[in-house]
């Protein structure tokens, strides 16, 4: 059973990057570690990626007996930094692009989307991280 130990809090659904996702004997995973705009439905996938990376690092720790060793936690943080930042950049970029009201930007956006739609290889490459 889970018990609330602090008052409920709320935060906007948007790009959220913490200064660090690890600390002394602590590794953050899921939404506790990062925020992404929900427009691409990738929050859970990022959290699964965190859990997988942490489990992999811990399972391969070899002679490092302590699961909370800074070396292992840093390894986990390094592994997740790039994929999380990439997804944050994409979702935040899309949210800004579709939230912008300037007509010239809307035209540019439509031209870009139509171009990507006509290039299957580019389309597949862009969709790949979301499908993984
Ligand atoms: C509208 C919306 C649509 C979304 N759509 C998608 C989607 O299509 N695909 C996708 O992949 N992701 C989607 N997401 C994101 C996804 O829901 C989250 O990324 C995911 O639930 C994060 O999981 P988590 O376990 O890290 O955190 P949470 O699911 O937030 O779990 C944290 C838990 O901790 C509990 N908790 C918090 N504080 C305390 C405390 N002090 N004491 C005790 N318990 C506490 C909370 O009650 C909660 O049960 C969406 C999110 C929103 C809001």
Protein described:
The protein has 132 residues and is mainly alpha-helical. It has helices spanning 43-59, 70-99, 103-117, 120-131; strands at residues 16-17, 22-23, 26-27, 34-35. α1 runs antiparallel to α2 (70-99). A hairpin with a 2-residue loop joins β2 and β3 (26-27). It contains 4 helices and 4 strands. The chain has one domain (37-131). The two termini are 32 Å apart. Flavin-adenine dinucleotide (FAD) is lined by residues 2, 4-6, 13, 30-32, 38, 41-45, 47.
**Ligand roster:** flavin-adenine dinucleotide
Apparent shape = globular
Largest sheet descriptor: 2 strands, antiparallel
Order of helices and strands: EEEEHHHH
Radius of gyration: 18 Å
Q: What is the overall pLDDT average?
A: 91
Taking the alpha carbons of the first and last residues, their distance comes to: 32 Å
User: For the largest beta sheet, what order do the strands appear in spatially?
Assistant: 1-4
Structure summary, number of beta strands: 4
Uncertain runs with pLDDT below 50, 5 residues or more?
A: none
Structural class: mainly alpha
Count of spatially separate domains = 1
Classify the helix fraction into a percent range. Answer: 55-70%
Task: Bin the strand percentage.
Answer: 5-15%
Give me the number of helical elements.
4
Give the gist of this structure:
By secondary structure, the protein is mainly α. Helices cover 56% and strands 6% of the residues. The protein has four helices and four strands, in the order E-E-E-E-H-H-H-H.
SSE layout and pairings?
Layout: E1 16-17, E2 22-23, E3 26-27, E4 34-35, H1 43-59, H2 70-99, H3 103-117, H4 120-131
Antiparallel strand pairs: 1-4, 2-3
Helix pairs in contact: 1-2
The structure holds flavin-adenine dinucleotide.
């Amino acid at each position: 059973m889970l018990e609330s130990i602090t008052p409920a809090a709320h935060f906007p659904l948007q790009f959220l990057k913490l200064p660090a996702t690890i600390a002394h004997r602590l590794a953050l995973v899921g939404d506790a570690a990062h925020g992404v705009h929900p427009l691409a439905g990738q929050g859970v996938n990022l959290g699964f990626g965190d859990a997988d990376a942490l489990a992999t690092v811990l399972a391969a720790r070899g002679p490092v007996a302590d699961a909370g060793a800074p070396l292992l936690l840093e390894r986990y943080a390094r592994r997740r930094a790039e994929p999380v930042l990439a997804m944050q950049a994409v979702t935040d970029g899309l949210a800004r692009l579709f939230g912008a009201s300037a007509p010239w930007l809307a035209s540019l956006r439509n031209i870009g989307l139509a171009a990507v739609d006509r290039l299957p290889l580019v389309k597949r490459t862009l969709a790949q991280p979301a499908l993984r």
